Amino acid sequence: MASPMKEVSTSQPSQDASSANLAELRETVANLAKDIASIAERRAKAAGETVANAAETGASELRQGIRRQPVLAMGVAVAAGALLALVVVPRSRPRASRWDAWTPNWTPNVSRSDLYDFADNIQRSVARAASAAAAPVTPTFERMVDALSRADTSSMNTIIEKMGGWFQKAQDKAKEKMR
User: Fold this and answer.
1) In terms of domains, do 82 and 38 share one?
2) Is 101 inside any structural domain?
3) Total domains, the chain
């Protein structure tokens, strides 16, 4: 059975063989991409020609229909124009004032007292949140500081020394790779 890949002799180093195989594969992929692009281009041209031919055929049929029955064609054109005019032209409504002309229909009616109520609600909510949040934070913080002050630091020192050793080894390896 024949393999699509060329066999590499073992007398050459493996890097030369793999780079040669890689170059061949890249060339094959580039050729396949060119072939696919040319096929897609041909299909796009054929589809464009098909659409152009269909549009041309439809236009010629429409012209023949207009020449055969001009009265019917004018009636259809008048009806279509009237429908288009109804859709496009806006309805005229009397406006109450100039201010109504400047405000869209979706704007809410907000008064000054509504804004004052809204500001008052926000101010009260902030005050409630500040008073409620301040109470439990300080005892928790005091307990955490007390626990840290009573903690045995000898185990912490060994952890810090181990981490320092790991970071030093990582730096040394990075320096070796940079060389």
Assistant:
1) yes
2) no
3) 2
Query: Range of 171's domain?
Result: 118-179
DSSP element (H, E) containing 1: none
Asked if 25 and 8 count as a contact pair (C-beta separation under 8 A), the reply is: no
Per-10-residue mean pLDDT of the chain, 179 residues long, equals 52 71 90 91 90 88 88 89 82 63 63 80 77 61 68 66 79 80
Say whether both 80 and 20 belong to one domain. yes
Give me the pLDDT at residue 1, please: 44
Which residues have a Cβ under 8 Å from the Cβ of 17 and sit 6 or more positions away? 8, 9
Question: What was the pLDDT predicted at 28?
Answer: 92
- pTM of the model as a whole: 0.31
Angle between helices 70-88 and 14-68 (to 10 degrees): 120
At a CB cut-off of 8 Å and minimum separation 6, what does 136 contact?
none
Q: What is the 3-state secondary structure (H, E, C) of 81-117?
A: HHHHHHHHCCCCCCCCCHHHHHCCCCCCCCCHHHHHH
12 neighbors 3 (Cβ within 8 angstroms) = no
**CB count, 10 Å around CB of 149?**
7
